[in-house]
Amino acid sequence: MTIETYRDAWGIPHLRATDARELARAQGRVTALDRAWQLEVERHRARGTSAAFLGPAAVSWDVLARRARLADTAKRSFDALDPGTADWVRAYVEGVNEALAEGARRTPEFTETGLTPGRWEPWTPLAVWLSTHILFAGFPAKLWREQVIRRLGREAVALFATDGPGTSGSNGWLVAGERTVTGKAVIAGDPHRFIEEPGVYQQVRLSCPEFDVVGLAVPGVPGIAHFGHTGTVAWAITNAMADYQDLYRERLRRTGAGVEALGPHGRWERAYRDTEFVEVRDAEPVPVEVIETERGPVIAGGPEGLDDGTLFPGDPETPLALSLRYPPRVTADVGFAALLPLLRARTVADVDRAFDAWVEPVNVVQAADTEGGTLHRVAGRVPVRAEANRVRLVAAWEPGHEWRGWHETPRAGLTDGIAVMANQRGPSTPLGVEFAPPHRADRITALLNEKDQWSAADMPAIHMDTHLASAAPLLALLAALDGLDPEAARLRDRLLRWDHRMDATSEEAAAYAAVRSAVVRRLAAHPAFTALTEPPAYPEVLLPWLGLTARIAFALENLLKAGELYGIDRPAIVRAALEEVVAVPAARTWGDTHRLAPWRALPGTPYSTGGTDAHPEPALSGDHDCVLCTSAVPGLTDLAARGPAARYVWDLARREDSLWVVPLGTSGVPGSAHHRDQLPLWTRGDLVPVVTDWARLTKETDDD
């Protein structure tokens, strides 16, 4: 069997092999060479062992991974795979294990930490997939809604309902052939994820006699799951914002034999129980009690409640323990059966059938082929259950909260030759609770409707649009202010003349952001919201969903537009915020403070601070509700830890006219020529061509 590795000018691997199995092995090998540190971090995170080298900051994640039983779910799911898929995944793992030691020798993080790469198991890619996506559906938002309902009332949930902390979204649009200069469809977009170093997506080409696919792979997972182009059909996804994970309040008790949970029929049921230990760098091991009820693994609390002894409000007889029910744990199916059929797809019908096997995360899929076919559908498993399950915590001991099969996944068509998805309410509306505001989707639609014919080369301008429609309510309150002192009036008037574009070079965007942050902080400090400032002692990894300042920041538009807000004098708050910014001038331009802050896994410094004075990260245009979605957290920081984790343009007329870019580069090795070579392009909105001519590539290896 022969494996050939080629590279283009950006170091993107193009792999060619004699069959699909050998190609998977080649993909595993090149990923281990390019991304050894990333693979090792992801393997440990999936097993709940990352604190052993990252230190105490990683303990909360490791405890969640253990208690949610991610590794055990991956093992069960691998054992349930069909033989062909299992062998293909096993080949990828073989490739990783063959090259991981060499990749580690190239990567300084291994020397810095003293870490020796471990061995991947056949089920490890499934565990990586689970750990990457376990928080994607945002089940901790149910903890927030529970707090809001109990402190402010059920009607308050809608005030805060928006794409907010910890969530991940995307832009995606499909333009049918009737609206393009070539007569063939174009698909474009950008997934919004936390920006990591190295990136969460890996540009790659996979070629064998069965298929020849370019796309964005998830390091540690074989194939091309989310974004791919086979030459005759292309597909892309956005987060459907579906709700498919439930949190149950459990009544647990200890017995001489272990732990029991009260079930919905009034019977105490035996629960699984074990004790594991999380090893911690430079600290003592942390014991973890792993409990699983008939609903699912207990991820917070236990028979004695949370760490602070919290009892559930309004139910003083019940110590707080929460179990998580999620589809792969219930079905022993991660959805890997979709991956090989996607590579083999030739038409949208093939893509459609492949996504019938998709499980999680639940996505909106857009696809088009060279014969004129298009596809716009939701893919994934969403359980049928009571409405209360979707909104908040439900009692495990009460009947009526069980899962009753799976929803049919909705489908949609195109309107005037286009389909746009940006996490707004759309075909997946029946499956979700909270969605992104419509601003990004509306803006993309408006831009596409500005002309009748589009080309692949036109699409990057849409990627980079910085218009911020959500600024309108705050600007309206500013416009209504009177009696301002001269300096405040001048700043107000400047903001009212502003073009609403969050450009890095804009002084008005910086001033608007400063006023917005001051308003957020003042609202968060208002006594009306005091009851939301101290949630129970939930695990630290879940707390981003419970931070009041972040919640207010992302819901600010709703809070400012509401007819009444608990007696809060919003004009007075806006006036005080404006005066605060006048007294303490903001940064000169938005890009002075709005900078990239990529996450990098290193001991003691798990999060970037946006570079150093000597080597600052780049200034960014955009904002959370812009098409160019570079998300800061107003009131807390202007740094952007989340943004486009890749950009792509798939051209169905000529695949070689397709375009793509990632935030940093193909290599995870610091100092490599391709470690950060795409960053300048990504920052200014340029994309690189997809190369398909083997003669234009540089041959790197030829292995038997």
Automatic annotation (TrEMBL):
Protein name: Penicillin acylase family protein
Cofactor stoichiometry and binding remark: Binds 1 Ca(2+) ion per dimer.
Cofactor: Ca(2+)
Classification via InterPro entries: Ntn_hydrolases_N, Pen/GL7ACA/AHL_acylase, Penicillin_amidase_A-knob, Penicillin_amidase_dom1, Penicillin_amidase_N_B-knob, S45
Any matching Pfam family: Penicil_amidase
Keyword hit for Metal-binding: yes
Location of the active site: S170
Organism: Streptomyces chromofuscus
UniProt entry keywords in alphabetical sequence: Calcium, Hydrolase, Metal-binding, Zymogen
Similarity field: Belongs to the peptidase S45 family.
GO biological process: antibiotic biosynthetic process
Binding site residues for Ca(2+): D243, D246
Any GO MF annotation of the entry: metal ion binding
PANTHER family: ACYL-HOMOSERINE LACTONE ACYLASE QUIP, PEPTIDASE S45 PENICILLIN AMIDASE
